[in-house]
């Protein structure tokens, strides 16, 4: 039915309202849609807010850490050492001592708690009225040949004494079951015709003492223009072949009988000196003039210890020695060398790693480490973008050109002169072909007994009592293998005081050998025993040889500065080019070579 408005012919007036209402409904619907969207995505929005907040926190943390890192690095660079010396052996302490007046911040870092390295003196009774030194490493030096070491000893005001006292006779020889003298080896008659020389030598080899026989054989082999004393690396045989390309034993065997080589090996103080190592090196060493052997009243390790003392005393604020810190890794950041040191602990001469570590920064680094210890150090990030530096691997290859010689030294302390049981005491050394190789009566000490040692058998007797020190073994090379098996698994880190009764295989074996050599029925157990196995020490060897075929002049120069563009250097007797390699002189010689070549770098501000 039509509405009233329609009947009146009027248009409805509510239509616009409807559109308004409709428009309003759309607005309401839109508002409802936004609210619904927010409600339905509240978790997502909250997550986004949390992510943004987290990112802001991370950025803030990074900025704080960067600020802290930059602050610490700036502080570390400000306190960065001018020179860090790694190792407190002879070469390390000598390096620091030579820099004592260079007006620089220098620190020496040592793995163990002891200064000295392979210069090590044991004093069984330091409180004795006449203490005697037991040299576990370097025994003596040659003043005429070892000029740098000799000069240093005098500057340090140490007291040289003769290694062989004037009243000591030449060594006794115990060879092939016989007690002999050097004169007995001069016999021109062969053994089968009543001669005293127990070796079956050729006719032209008879009648010569070991040093004369060695010169005779080398004279037949060497070219006339070869000078082993000054240029051993260039020495050639009569066929024009360089000696450094040959093994020493192979070289000798071309002219000498096997018996002659055996005689040279058995009468040498060390078996390694007639081994088949580099012929140029060993020929030069065996021809060294060993007259005038000197040792030190204070002990041979007084040299590195006095060097360290004077180094620190010259500037206590800037010169430091840090012990029980082993270098594990070296990196380069912003032109400086950052080093990570593992803290160690030393107890009863045994050094072990701890969990703690520390960082030290230096502008220059001198590695005064033997080859095995140097090989353990990791060089990282010297080249940008490379995790492990390629030069580190090249250094590892260069170190393989060096051969470690195993070595062992043993000392026994006795309360009685058991060796005088049947004859007058032998005061001279004994050299033998048996595995102990060398026996030396070092001396007598007078020790006042402690109250705790007097016991019920004593009353008020407190008079000094004699103690006698024997070096009962000083061996290397093939003899080492025999004694190493006697030590078993009890040896650790190279140094050990052992059981003094015959329950020890080493003590039992040495005791039987001493009875055989000295011709006595009974040798009492020692009061004290001290053994050094240098092969199980951090140096991993008693000494080092350049391997056969190595042109050591080039290798020594490359090892002195492994990376030509870096201020990281290497010193030590093992890297000395030539026969100096087996002497303490080699340690100081390599330091002098370094400073001579890089004087401006180390002493530039003083040398201008």
UniProtKB/TrEMBL annotation:
Highest taxon of the source? Eukaryota
- TM spans, by residue? 45-65
- Tell me which UniProt keywords the record has, alphabetically: Membrane, Transmembrane, Transmembrane helix
Q: Which InterPro entries match?
A: Amino_oxidase (IPR002937), FAD/NAD-bd_sf (IPR036188), Flavin_monoamine_oxidase (IPR050281)
GO MF term set = oxidoreductase activity
What Gene3D superfamilies does the entry give?
A: FAD/NAD(P)-binding domain
Sequence ranges assigned to domain Amine oxidase in this UniProt record: 90-589
- SUPFAM superfamilies per the UniProt record, alphabetical: FAD/NAD(P)-binding domain
- Output this protein's name: Amine oxidase domain-containing protein
